[in-house]
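#structure-requests
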Amino acid sequence: MARHDEFHFGHRIGLLRAMVLGANDGIISTACLILGVAAANASRETIITAGVAGLVAGAASMAIGEYVSVSSQRDAEQADIAKEKWELEHTPEHELDELTEIYVAKGLSNQLARDVAVELTKGDALKAHMAEELGISHATMARPLQASVSSASSFSVGAAIPLVAAALASSSQRIATTIVVAVFALVALGVSSSKAGGAHPARPTARIVVGGLVAMAFTMAVGHFVGIAVA
C-alpha cells in the first residue's frame, strides 16, 4: 500500500501561532512605543533608544513567556501520557474496552470496533490511545524551545520594521512614515499567515490591521497628553 503523505495545515499550527503572535506583537508594540514617544515631542535619539529597548525587551519577554507557557502544556501532555502508559501496563483489558467504546461512538459496529481496537493494540497501543483518548500525536505535541525561538525571532523581525522606518524618516514625517510602514507590514503579515494556514486572507488581514491601528491611535493619544502634562 502507498504511503499516506497528504499534507494538512494543522500539522504546523503550533509553530505558525508562535511566529504570527511574535511578528504581530513586534510590529504593533514597537510602532506604538515609537509613536507614543514621538507624539510627546521627544528627540530622535530618545525615540530610537526607546524603540531599540522595546525590541530587546519584547523579544526576551516573548521567548520566556512562550517557553514557560508551552512547557506547562508539555508537562500536562507528559503527565497524561505517563498515566496512559500505566493503565496500558496494569489494566490492558479496561483500556481495550475504552478504545472499543470510542470506535463504537464514532459509528462502528460493536464487533468491528473491537476488531479495530485489538489490531491497533497489537501494533502501537500507546499511540492509538494518545490519539483517540488524549487527542495527542507526535506531530502536534508541544515544543517549548521551538516556540520560544520562533516567537523571539519573529518579534525581532517585526519590531525592526517600524524601528528602521522611524530611524530613516525625517522629523516632520516620522509619525506618518511609521504608521504607513507598520500598516503595510501588518497587511503582509495577515496575508502571509493566512496563506500559510490555508485560510482566505481578507478577514485575518483586516483583523490584524484594524487592531494595530486602534492600538497605535490609543498610544499616540496617551503619549501626546502625557507629553503635555510633563512639559
